[in-house]
Every structure is written in structure tokens, then in C-alpha cells.
Design a protein that fits this description.
It is built from three helices and five strands, in the order βαβαβαββ. It is α+β, with helices and mostly antiparallel strands. The chain has one domain: Tetrahydropterin Synthase, Chain A. The protein has a five-stranded mixed β-sheet with strand order 3-1-2-4-5. The longest helix has 16 residues. The two termini are 18 Å apart. Bound molecules: nickel (II) ion. Nickel (II) ion binds next to strand 2.
């Protein structure tokens, strides 16, 4: 078993807010992240695919192909977007890093021509990241 990783970045805004709660409770739970008009992050995404090496190509999966799959199914949908409003695959969820990572997993899991998705790691800041493994 071998693992390959493609790293991508995107910039997006979001607001952490639960519409079932009062503004006061949202402010208590999410603090600055509940800011009415949102705030932005420079996200770093790492997509890890696992599998066996194809003896003919020597690749698990050509990273150029993985890059294109991530661009088409994730980056083009989230880059320079407001994650609460603009992104169909995040519709109806609070766009925490956890939920974004799960949404990205679901966008990619059935799109790989070889290997299988091992993990989606999403850095929201230099020090905070989440990792989803299905
Ligand atoms: Ni945030």
C-alpha cells in the first residue's frame, strides 16, 4: 500500500452561526467566528489517496489527474466564495472546518480512477486543522 498527497489552497469566507439558536448563544459558542458579515481564511487542503502501484506506469494515480479532479470538484466551487451561501455541497451545514472536510471528502470519494481516498486534511489556520477519513 502506498499513499500519495496533493496539496491545494483556496481562499473563502464563512460565518459560524446556528440559525436554531439566539444571537446571544451563537456569540457565546462561536465568538468572533459568528461575526454577522463573516470573515475569511486561506485554507490549505491535503488530499491523500492510497492504493497499489500500477506496474506499467509506476504510479498509484498520476498526480496531474488528481490535481484536475480536486480543481474541478472542490477548488473551482469554493475558491473566493462565501461558504455559507455559494457552495451547493455545503448547503444547509454550518461551515466549520469539520463540515467542510466532510463535504470535500464526499465530493472526491467516488471520482478517483485509481486507488481510494485515504484522508482529507483541511488547515483553517497555520495551527488548526481537521482530518477526515470517511
Ligand atoms: Ni473562521
Amino acid at each position: 500500500m502506498i499513499y500519495i498527497t496533493r496539496r491545494e489552497t483556496f481562499a473563502a469566507s464563512h460565518r459560524l452561526y446556528n440559525p436554531d439558536w439566539s444571537d446571544e448563544k451563537n456569540n457565546d459558542v462561536y465568538d468572533k467566528c459568528a461575526n454577522k458579515n463573516g470573515h475569511g481564511h486561506n485554507y490549505v487542503l491535503e488530499v491523500v489517496v492510497k492504493g497499489e502501484i500500477d506496474p506499467e506506469t509506476g504510479y498509484l494515480l498520476d498526480l496531474k489527474i488528481l490535481k484536475e479532479i480536486i480543481k474541478k470538484n472542490v477548488i473551482s466551487l469554493v475558491d473566493h466564495k462565501h461558504l455559507n451561501h455559494d457552495v451547493p455541497f455545503l448547503s444547509g451545514v454550518i461551515p466549520t472546518a469539520e463540515n467542510i472536510a466532510m463535504g470535500i471528502w464526499n465530493q472526491l470519494a467516488d471520482k478517483l480512477p485509481a486507488g481510494e481516498l485515504n484522508s482529507v486534511k483541511l488547515y483553517e489556520t497555520e495551527n488548526n486543522y481537521v482530518e477526515y477519513k470517511g
